[in-house]
Amino acid sequence: MAVDITIPSPGESITEVSLSGWLKDDGAYVEKDELLAEIESDKATLELRAPAAGALKIVTKKGDGIKVGTVVAAIDTTGARPNVGAAAGVGAVAPAGAGVGAVAPAGAPSGASAGASSGGSKVSGVAKKVAAEKGVDIAAIAGTGPSGRVMKDDVLAATTASTPAAAAAAPAPSSTEPKVRVAAAPVAGSRSVRREKMTKLRQKIAERLVHAQHTAAMLTTFNECDMTEVMRLRTEHKDAFEKRFGVGLGFMSFFVKAAVSGLQKYPRVNAYIVGQGADTEIEFHDYSDIAVAVGTEKGLVVPVLRNAEALSFAGVESAIKDFALRAKDGKLTVDEMTGGTFTISNGGVYGSLMSTPILNPPQSAILGMHAIKKRAVEDPKNPGQVALRPMMYLALSYDHRIIDGAEAVGFLVHIKDMIEKPERLLFA
């Protein structure tokens, strides 16, 4: 019996995905729930796992624009499970003392199959193609992939390494040949070039960022805040906080709560522009759905804290920790990354001192946090005196079509006041 493998739907608005390739060869025996491939959409990456145990029959090897619901493979459940004992004979060596013409045990292959193995290791389809193009003996390459699988980068590395060796093995020119002066080759390192396909997620990120710059009257205003009091509170209460709630007390919860207070005071910062021309309207929101930018290897994602005004400090920290862990594993759902009325981006975790964050459409503003650095500033407790204080630059990028400069500056000053005197958050 054959069990079809179809492209699942990553989300309600997504109709097409990309299939980058299979982790198993056509005809290979797979176990139930074994990872077979990954599919990518413009919002999320999903795993394609075996619905049953059996022989894999691949219909679509890879490609872009594959419709949701398309059958891309099937599992033949009548396929026999491989004989482990027989498999052990693969790659077996003839016993010591056997003559040159000695024959390997029955079942052993006479040579490495171009599509099956290399020195006993599996070979990816891309690696085989690159090896053929470069003229590289793939059987001599040690794989660095899972279970010793030979990957594309292994072939490229072998190609680079073999170039100097080939040059050294070249015969010296005959003394009877005319001597030609040849310019010395540069001694610089490798000048290899590689390209990789941009993922659907990164393509969508790029599209949205360019769209934001082309459609909004984007402007950025800056300020700085003294982190002394927040750092003091965090130091005093972090152990008790973690013991009680099971999560660390970070800076993000302070800024999320300060932003909620600011959005309530300056509602245009929490609004959208909808419609065009004579039908243009401003959509106000009585709630604060705050998107928190999270960096991953595949790109930036912005999961949303729904009704952040109703969350406690522990609720904010727990939600952000959960988002970060699942974003790293590609487990966030499309719904969790959709919406949001305002965004906070913390470039400070990467060491950024100052930046101009780009709007996250259709939102009208985004707050940028940055690295904390000690700087010489006027001591607020001793006017006229200079003191070293832990300072953070804040940036607010906003759409000038809907938010006036006075509102943007007022909102950022409000954030600054809340952070410098965090007890105000109790009454916000």
Q: How many domains would you count in the coordinates?
A: 3
Q: N-to-C SSE series?
A: EEEEEEEEHHHHEHHEEEEEEHEEEEH
Q: Can you say what the CATH homologous superfamily of the largest domain is?
A: Chloramphenicol acetyltransferase-like domain
Task: Enumerate how many helices there are, as a single number.
Answer: 8
Distance between the termini: 63 Å
Helix and strand composition category: alpha+beta
Q: Mean of residue pLDDT?
A: 82
The parts where pLDDT drops under 50 for at least 5 residues are 86-120
Fold-level CATH name of the largest domain: Chloramphenicol Acetyltransferase
The CATH class of the largest domain turns out to be Alpha Beta
Shape: globular
Q: Biggest β-sheet, characterized?
A: 7 strands, mixed
Report strand %: 15-25%
Q: What is the architecture of the largest domain at the second tier of CATH?
A: 2-Layer Sandwich
In short:
It contains 8 helices and 19 strands. It is α+β, with helices and mostly antiparallel strands and 428 residues long. The protein has 3 domains: 75 residues, OB fold (Dihydrolipoamide Acetyltransferase, E2P) (Beta Barrel), CATH 2.40.50.100; 44 residues, Irregular (Dihydrolipoamide Transferase), CATH 4.10.320; 225 residues, Chloramphenicol Acetyltransferase, CATH 3.30.559.
